[in-house]
Specification:
Two copies of one chain form a homodimer. By secondary structure, chain A is of the alpha/beta class. Chain A has 15 helices and 17 strands. Chain A is elongated, with a radius of gyration of 27 Å.
């Protein structure tokens, strides 16, 4: 089954909002085993919307539309889809009762224009909307001798996402025989092209699962994706391929595995939290150029308070000295961006918070503040444990912007703590 | 000029990443005065990519492609576009030198597959990439008797966005006769529908500039957009309309104005920094549930070290007590999520760092940790100055996710400091 997403909304074309519906539905339909080759966005224009609906239904089995369903949209989406399927619009009394009940629930009067939402294509499955007023729809019919399916959902993510889960997903699941499962292998200390040159033979020879590298800002991932009749079978295929990858030269660069977007995005910090939890150890931070970004990243993870006690943001030299106890002469002689300062910061954070392990960062995020000896992108790291303190200096590309240097610094600081905990670094 | 965005990437079709490039470029091209009717996403499949390129070039004057340019993509995007324009690929020595220089700068060896990035369509303008390796391209040519334009940019937002600004934007600007200018009026303490009901007559009667409300997560903005032959003329039109809006009941809710996406996104924090700088005052933080997000947001702004000295992340009660001096009995009796604790945290941060003003937050970000008395979303704030300490409690919607509650807490904490500095709050 080929599935295509068609998002309707002029605000998307103007860039006023980011299309998160598209990513959400894409992820969900991929997990249902549908293939996806196109995603399209059009505005609230009847003619172009009709063209887009017809094109999508001509090349895909299932078209999922989001947006263009509210009381002020003149129902252009519903009518375009009904016409494509050659279906009449009928007034649905059950939808009317549902919308009236919604307005009673939120205690607001229902305006007349809401009644336009009660017109639905004949024979459609109505997805009642518990999160707003515009109902969703599931439509099935013959087009050009083939059975085609359309799903219509409201655009606001707070309605689209729960309605997809509750209504559209079960309606669609009956159409798919397969399940798709992806496993991400997260690499540290190797670039995309080096990883790819090692894995190219496997990438070319593997069809199920497929193997593909994916470079993000701070790391490279290898994505292993399998299609099978059951989730267990797909997982087993991915497991076997991942084990094969672990036998290559890429293997020792794998620091963790994830199988969903939240964990993938937070792979460094969840790995750090896992290593701390496993050892019953607590963690603290001393941040200068990141100004709290490391702490905030740890706080992104629910339950981080098991292992994260807190930290000190020492943006100025004065705070480095008075709160973290960095010696005045260190700041006067070698300066704040030095391994000596990083060491004193990490030790100070450990002493102040009582944590078992503390990391520190002090660097030049730019755009100003660089010198020939310490250009923008120079960052000194420290990691202090009861065994001692390790320091190192990294030079991130000075042409990177401030935000990127700070994000790279954050990932590197956490990875330094992971390597320390795993015993990969001499303290 | 009609402009269309075509994003290339299987990871977009799978929903692994959200398409922020599309929104960014849509906003930028709208500001250049281009019209936009379609956005499309396709995967790394040569045949479907060719079809999509040809369709886009048939219906639009300018096609902007993102993604599909890395060393591992087999250059399918470049070749598809070159073929559509009927142009040969040539090896560009200047690009080779630029990529070699990039690898020297980051201190990694260049692998052979990077050389594939040096092949460019004949006559193309090469946009050298200071943020990565894959160069971007500007291509101009006749297709079916009409002059068409294509721009190719790498997919990663950290490369796509600065390359658009530095290279593609000036290349595209010469194609437009008009200039579009937008002024954002940032509101605090009023919802979207209330703002809209006040401004509706103006929204309906204004054609140039247009007036539109835009609800973001933490605030409502009124966007005033003018089209004119010169930037000065467009700015003057927006200024007059903004002054008119300031005369309405919305006027007193405007806390700042911005005219570009970076400032708009950071309006709260830049307003805070401006208020501090104007008074020659310094700022510190004491963060529990935000875990460093307030400090990190201040650190996002270059030059924040003028006014931001640092802060304490007190994630556990122990750190609240030992570093910030929150009384043990406060934590034992009313608990960490209390205005008493928030007051002691803000005062402790001020004392420890020596800052003139300190804000504190302590709350329940969820998903766990809520109780009937203090449900998820309950956050206590404190703001301490030499004049005394103000506290208040906010209840963010418990249905919000953890990340959103923390972001709302961050914006509210900074706004509390702004209101204190402006004298809008009794301490």
């Amino acid at each position: 089954m080929i599935c295509e997403i068609l998002c309707v909304g002029t605000e998307l074309l103007l860039g006023d909002i980011v299309n998160t519906d598209g990513a959400f539905i894409a992820r969900e339909t991929a997990a249902l085993g549908f293939s996806s080759y196109h995603q399209t966005t059009v505005g609230d224009n009847p003619e172009r919307l009709r063209e887009a609906v017809n094109l999508a239904l001509s090349r895909s089995d299932v078209v999922i539309l989001t947006g263009g369903l509210g009381p002020t949209c003149d129902d252009i989406t519903k009518n375009a889809v009904a016409d494509a399927f050659g279906k009449k619009m009928i007034f649905d009394e059950a939808t009317r009762a549902d919308i009236e009940a919604y307005f009673r629930r939120v205690g607001r009067p229902m305006t007349e224009n809401n009644l336009s939402q009660c017109w639905v294509p004949e024979g459609a499955t109505v997805f009642y909307n518990k999160w707003g007023t515009a109902p969703g729809l599931g439509i099935e019919g013959e087009i050009g001798g083939q059975t085609k399916y359309a799903v219509l959902l409201p655009g606001p993510p707070a309605e689209c996402e729960p309605m997809f889960e509750a209504c559209a997903k079960p309606w669609l699941a009956r159409l798919s025989d397969d399940v798709i499962y992806s496993l991400n292998l997260h690499l540290w200390g190797i670039g995309e092209s080096a990883a790819e040159s090692i894995l190219r033979p496997m990438m070319e020879s593997s069809e199920n699962p497929t193997v593909a590298p994916y470079a993000c800002e701070h790391e490279v991932r290898i994505r292993v994706t399998a299609r099978a009749r059951t989730l267990e079978e797909a997982k087993a295929l991915c497991r076997a391929k991942a084990d094969e990858i672990r036998q290559t030269d890429v293997g020792e660069k794998i620091y963790t595995e994830t199988d969903n977007p939240f964990d993938a995005k937070n792979a460094v910090v969840t790995t750090l939290i896992g290593e701390l939890r496993r050892r019953g150890m607590t963690f603290a931070t001393a941040e200068s150029c990141t100004a709290g970004m490391i702490g905030s990243s740890v706080g992104d993870i629910p339950g981080a308070s098991d292992v994260f006690v807190g930290g000190i943001i020492s943006y100025t030299n004065d705070v480095k000295e008075r709160v973290l106890g960095v010696p005045h002469e260190t700041l006067e002689t070698v300066g704040a961006v030095s391994e000596e300062c990083a060491a004193a910061m990490a030790e100070g954070a450990r002493r102040q918070t009582g944590a078992d392990i503390a990391v520190s960062v002090t660097g030049i995020a730019g755009p100003g503040g660089g010198t020939p000896e310490k250009p923008v992108g120079t960052v000194c790291f420290g990691v202090a444990t009861e065994k001692g303190t390790h320091t190192e200096t990294r030079h991130f590309n000075g042409k990177n912007d401030r935000a990127k240097i700070r994000r790279l610094t954050t990932a590197n600081a956490m990875m330094l703590a992971i390597r320390t905990l795993r015993g990969d670094l001499a303290p």
